[in-house]
Amino acid sequence: MAPMGIRLSPLGVAVFCILGVGVIYHLYAGVISSRLAAFRQRRKVDLRELLAASVEAAVLGGKEVKRVREENGLKEKSKGKTREGAKELLTRGDLQSHRKMFNLLKNTFPDVTVYSEEQDNTVDKAASWSRDIPADILDKIEGGKFVPADSVTVWIDPLDATQEYTENLVKYVTTMVCVAIDGKPVIGVIHQPFTGFTAWAFVGHGGNVQSRSSYSLNPPNVIVSRSHAGQVKNYIRDAFGNGTTILPAGGAGYKVLSLLKMPPSDSIDLADIYIHITFIKKWDICAGAALLNALGGHMTTLKGEDINYSGDPLNKGGLVASVDVDHKALLERLPNWEPDKH
After folding, report:
1. What domains are there in the chain, each with its CATH number?
2. N or C: which end of the chain has fewer CB within 10 A?
């Protein structure tokens, strides 16, 4: 008897091949996927380079802010209103600054998540960091401080204090960049376009800002938002008494700088603490939080909770910021307050 064999038609051969490829794909797809994921996780960012690029971005954005203001080419329009009914304005200064800052950072560090206050589809593929590291950063910060790119969130505010900007109250205006690692603010940059001063700090490693020699809580000078001054004044007087000095000011960045030892300038108010009792966006406060943390200070919610600087851009718990005071004792003096109910 002749040996039996298996004879496949061309169609059968094709089906067999397809099934074989499918089996091989399923065997190796999981391996390939896990290796790609591991490769992505291995992508690192040098934080000294990211700090230098953040400073450059804030300064370049500030140049646009100043130029537009001096040309009186604001072309302001309303983006709507805040929860509290205050008008939110958008100017050409906001947009031009955003384009410089966002594109520089995103093109230089494409694997990093970057959030900006402004939304704009203009892409500038040529914008990138110059690779220059300022001398004071080289002097104070060592290189080689690598972190996984997917742990980094960058918050940029292309123009803080837009309302004051339109009123030509330019002392309040700043541009800001913050780098958060796993939700914690680590690098903060606050640039003043109309004085040219740039404050920066890298938590645990140094910066170019200092706390003042003394602060007081009996009673304190408290800096607050100009747009919500009425409600917050009553809140603060309940906490510290009617003799408390309350300083209404524009811009969260400016308010943080008012807590620090600043270069001699008539344009900075001096405050002991900063309090905000309504909702506020994280691009407004992250850079300031990093500066304060680097000096051993604090920025928390009104209940003393740490603020997570990842994901949702809205901080709903209000905030209290201090430098060289007993922050826990400060929190204990604050009245109960639910920002989401006011």
Report:
1. 45-209 (3.30.540.10), 211-341 (3.40.190.80)
2. N
